[in-house]
Design brief:
464 residues, alpha+beta, 3-stranded antiparallel beta sheet
Length: 464
């Protein structure tokens, strides 16, 4: 049978008879499992029907803070098309075939929101599936981030990869279910410890901490709704009947938070819980939040958890965050997009690629920027115009295109080839004539002789 795939008003025929037997994948490699669910937040949770969903985990403040920070940082970096020159340097460029889809990937998202959706899918579900829409030239003109819970990777007996897509009106997938080859899907996985096609979310690693954190938040909410009083029991030393107990319970439940309960029968209240101080709620909450930050690779202070760094400069913290968290996401994004757009091979002799501008993420303070720009210019590493653009975001000025360097250092070979300077010639002795010297000359000679005489005595040449 032939199955018709509707994408934005255009029909594509897919011959299902040509598809080989396919098998769905999970982390264990057997069957299929909904990716909206973290399998077990703790050992034995599955038997107790306790599951942690991605949407539930996002309600924990540490998960939301880490997800928001990573997603927005990835979205604010400029994604640009670059080309490689003869020296292997990548410079920004434009192309009528690739630039339009990088500026506007689809009709309902900007490129920034497209990047955020891609990264959100990886963080929450461990996988990002992007559907490619091509024109008659087979050039990708639109890209759509799909709902991971509605996509299933399939593998044929010969190793060919396919993807089963469920209906998605926003992305233009009209049939209830359609299977497409891997060439039409960009698949970017997070950490994939069990199978190359199955990525796992950071929630898989911090699910126990998230479950504990949500329990702490819920317990604290109930505690404060209960007038800051732990749960307990009422006891009657002399005993009461069942009717009296039911009436007391009804009266107790009817009171509003903050009201004083007036009960008879010499009842005594015995607490069965601990106060917030006794339970060390603040310490436990901070511990679980730090565990979540560790799973996401985010320094806790960047999401206002824990003490500030011991150094005044904020840049080292950003560099650590970039190397341990953002860099891997950005690199995988670039490589997956390059392959999806067909940029891995040279096109008309030009090697294209995509690249995030990391300078948009690490924007130094004013003093550091001024110092870096000054040293870059003085060291000859950048021209004044390049330093103005990189460190100050300013335009070009006349005469600032050429790098500058002071002419103070010389190669050792040139210094070795120089002639050794000779000692200067002594001035000629004045010619003394037979005429009687003038009185001034005689006085100078006598003074000079006296000086020589005293020096000889001091050096012990002879006794004076």
């Amino acid at each position: 049978m032939n199955l018709e795939l509707q994408l934005f008003g255009r029909s594509f025929a897919l011959n299902t008879k040509a598809l080989p037997p396919l098998k769905g994948l999970t982390p264990s490699g057997q069957g299929w499992y909904p990716w909206g669910v973290v399998r077990e937040s703790f050992t034995g949770a599955w038997q107790r029907n306790i599951e942690l969903r991605a949407d539930t985990a996002l309600s924990y403040f540490a998960v939301w803070a880490c997800t928001r920070l990573i997603t927005t940082d990835m979205g604010k970096m400029c994604l640009r098309l670059v080309q490689q020159d003869a020296d292997g340097i990548w410079t920004e460029t434009s192309s009528p075939a690739f630039s339009p889809v990088l500026r506007k990937p689809n009709r309902y998202q900007t490129i920034n929101k497209f990047v955020e959706s891609w990264i959100l899918s990886k963080l929450n579900y461990g996988n990002a599936y992007v559907l490619k829409v091509r024109d008659q030239r087979r050039v990708v003109v639109e890209m759509h981030v799909l709902d991971p819970s509605r996509v299933k990777p399939l593998v044929a007996m010969d190793g060919a990869v396919y993807y089963e897509l469920q209906r998605d009106d926003l992305s233009g997938i009209r049939p209830e279910t359609v299977t497409v080859p891997a060439s039409e899907i960009i698949h970017d996985t997070y950490i994939a410890p069990f199978h190359p096609l199955i990525g796992l979310s950071p929630l898989f690693a911090c699910s126990s901490a998230v479950t504990q954190g949500l329990a702490i938040q819920g317990s604290s909410t109930n505690f404060f709704q209960n007038s800051n009083t732990p749960s307990g029991i009422l006891t009657a030393p002399k005993g009461i009947t069942s009717e009296q107990a039911a009436e007391l319970l009804k009266t107790w439940k009817a009171r509003q938070p903050g009201d004083i309960a007036v009960l008879g029968g010499e009842l005594a209240y015995t607490s069965l819980g601990f106060t917030a101080v006794e339970s060390q709620v603040s310490e436990l909450s901070r511990l679980t939040a730090e565990q979540v930050c560790s799973a996401y690779g985010v320094p806790p202070y960047l999401v206002d958890i824990g003490p500030p760094p011991p150094y005044a400069n904020f840049e080292p913290l950003l560099l650590k965050y970039h190397s341990q968290c953002i860099q891997s996401l950005a690199t995988n994004f670039e490589k997956s997009l390059d392959e999806g757009l067909g940029l891995l091979d040279k096109i008309d002799g030009t090697q294209y690629g995509t690249e995030f501008d990391v300078d948009d993420l690490i924007w130094m303070d004013t003093a550091t920027r001024v110092e870096s720009a000054s040293k870059s210019i003085q060291g000859g590493g950048m021209s004044p115009n390049e330093a103005r653009k990189k460190y100050h975001g300013l335009g070009k000025v006349e005469g600032g295109e050429t790098p500058l360097l002071q002419n103070q250092m010389w190669p050792l070979a040139q210094l070795a080839d120089r002639e050794t300077p000779s000692a200067p010639d002594l001035p000629a002795m004045p010619v003394v004539d037979d005429q009687e010297p003038e009185s001034d000359t005689m006085e100078e000679a006598a003074s000079f002789a006296s000086i020589l005489h005293r020096k000889a005595i001091a050096e012990g040449l002879y006794a004076g």
